[in-house]
Amino acid sequence: MGCSSSRDENGEVVSFERSEPLLDFKCKGFEHGGVQVAQCAVQGWRKTMEDVALVQFGVPPREDTLALGVFDGHSGGDAAQFAQEELIGHIKETDEWRRGDVSTGCINGFMAVDVSMRKCGVQSGTTAVLALIGPEDIVVANCGDSRSVLRWETDAGR
């Protein structure tokens, strides 16, 4: 697991504000097995993008599970990037995930990421929301003030 911080090469805390908002929307689309996903982000007032998204089709050993996440960085993007890169791995390592208890696996995975961030000295923070969408169920987990909205549409309509 990699570690990073929100400091410049001299060890000084990086300033995060811009004089004007950057309103250039960055959008991507994904499709896998008939499932379509869109992801959009805007930088806003921050000097750097602090938010990170996760779109992962297949979460071993559940290849039919879609993972969607948003990590809202605070005081830099290091924690958001760290969580995006590490959360699924920590969830998959839990005994609960292996036994099929997805909800408890998520809770313990979130806690493990927090411990890893502290061990690595990550100075910034992040909120997070993660949805694991399987053929039989949807599990949504969040940390901090991040929330999610689900829109479901079939051939019969919404």
Query: Which blocks of ≥5 consecutive residues have pLDDT under 50?
Result: 1-5
Beta-strand content: 35-45%
Rg, rounded, reads: 17 Å
Alpha plus pi helix count: 3
Q: How many strand segments?
A: 8
Order of helices and strands: EEEEEEHHHEE
User: What's the CATH class label of the domain at 48-143?
Assistant: Alpha Beta
Average of the residue pLDDT scores: 85
Biggest sheet, open or closed, and with what strands and sense? 4 strands, antiparallel
The percentage helix is: 10-25%
Which overall shape is indicated by the principal axes computed on the Cα atoms? Answer: flat
InterPro entries: PP2C (IPR015655), PPM-type-like_dom_sf (IPR036457), PPM-type_phosphatase-like_dom (IPR001932)
Protein name: Protein phosphatase 2C-like
Pfam families: PP2C (PF00481)
Domain PPM-type phosphatase: 36-158
Folded structure, characterized:
- This protein is of the alpha+beta class and 158 residues long.
- The protein has a domain at 48-143: PPM-type phosphatase domain (Phosphatase 2c, domain 1, 4-Layer Sandwich).
- It is 25% helix and 38% strand.
- The chain has three helices and eight strands, in the order E-E-E-E-E-E-H-H-H-E-E.
- The protein has helices spanning 78-92, 95-99, 102-120, and strands at 17-22, 26-32, 35-41, 44-46, 51-59, 62-74, 125-133, 138-143.
- The strands form three sheets. The chain has a four-stranded antiparallel beta sheet, with helices on one face. A two-stranded antiparallel ribbon has the order 1-4.
- Helix 1 packs across helix 3 (102-120).
- The longest helix is centred in the last third of the chain and has 19 residues, at 102-120.
- The protein starts with 16 loop residues before the first strand and ends in a 15-residue tail after the last strand.
- 25% of the residues are buried.
- Residues 36-158 form the PPM-type phosphatase domain.
- InterPro entries: PP2C, PPM-type-like_dom_sf, PPM-type_phosphatase-like_dom.
- This is Protein phosphatase 2C-like.
